[in-house]
């Protein structure tokens, strides 16, 4: 998470939180991607924990305004690389499903880098609305204003990793792999 320091290209006030792509998301040959952009109840490297329900109000406001969460490259607002067709909370985290636009140069590059394993992270760009403190001194993010979900190079949630992408239509295998990885990450 680049909490407290924004790059020159990042939006003012934007905070970021990362999760490893290879554990919680998949990419298909045609550029469709899906998975989890954030996981509930797991501390990232800075000690911050996103709580279940943290995205609900923001997602509702976006739907009501007819807006969508942006799919960016490395949190750069000048580099949209696709569209998120679905962004919703479930019991595990923030589930996303979308498409990389391979007609856009950076979208095609992102797909190639994902396939090669050079990029393996998803990261949310957000503003904290309500937060408490965890016993370990990090933040407990209770409500966030979600702005975007990016493909990134360096994830902040290293516990969420997987070894392989899931073939189209194999949701059960994807869910089982994710459940196993989360269990391992939590030490169960």
How many strands appear in the DSSP assignment? 9
Cα shape: globular
Which secondary-structure class do the elements indicate?
Answer: alpha+beta
Average pLDDT: 77
Number of domains: 1
- Bin the helical content: 10-25%
Fraction of residues in β-strands: 35-45%
Give, in order, the helices and strands: EHEEEHEEEHEEH
Pick out the low-confidence regions: 1-8, 159-171
Q: What's the alpha carbon Rg, rounded to whole Å?
A: 15 Å
Task: Describe this entry's structure for a reader.
- With 188 residues, this protein is of the alpha+beta class.
- It has one domain.
- Helices cover 22% and strands 38% of the residues.
- It comes from Albimonas pacifica.
- One of its GO terms (molecular function) is peptidase activity.
- Keywords: Hydrolase, Protease, Viral release from host cell.
Task: Describe the structure concisely for a colleague.
With 188 residues, the protein is α+β, with helices and mostly antiparallel strands. 22% of the residues lie in helices and 38% in strands.
What secondary-structure arrangement, pairings included, does this model have?
Blueprint: E1 15-20, H1 21-24, E2 25-27, E3 32-39, E4 49-50, H2 56-65, E5 70-73, E6 76-89, E7 93-100, H3 105-116, E8 121-133, E9 139-152, H4 171-185
Parallel strand pairs: 4-9, 5-9
Antiparallel strand pairs: 1-8, 2-3, 3-7, 5-6, 6-7, 8-9
């Amino acid at each position: 998470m680049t909490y407290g320091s924004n790059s020159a290209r990042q939006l003012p006030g934007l905070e970021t939180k990362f999760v490893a792509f290879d554990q919680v998301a998949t990419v298909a040959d045609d550029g469709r991607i899906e998975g989890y952009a954030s996981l509930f109840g797991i501390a990232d490297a800075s000690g911050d924990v996103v709580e279940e329900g943290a995205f609900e109000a923001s997602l509702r406001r976006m739907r009501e305004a007819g807006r969508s969460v942006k799919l960016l490259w490395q949190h750069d607002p000048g580099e949209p690389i696709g569209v998120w067709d679905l962004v919703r909370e479930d019991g595990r985290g923030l589930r996303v499903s979308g498409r990389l636009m391979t007609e856009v140069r950076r979208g095609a590059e992102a797909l190639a880098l994902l396939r090669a394993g050079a990029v393996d992270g998803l990261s949310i760009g957000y503003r904290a609305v309500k937060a408490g403190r965890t016993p370990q001194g990090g933040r407990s993010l209770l409500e966030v204003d979600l702005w975007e979900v990016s493909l990134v190079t360096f994830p902040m949630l290293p516990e969420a990793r997987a070894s392989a992408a899931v073939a189209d239509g194999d949701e059960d295998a994807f869910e089982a792999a994710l459940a196993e990885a989360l269990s391992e990450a939590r030490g169960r």
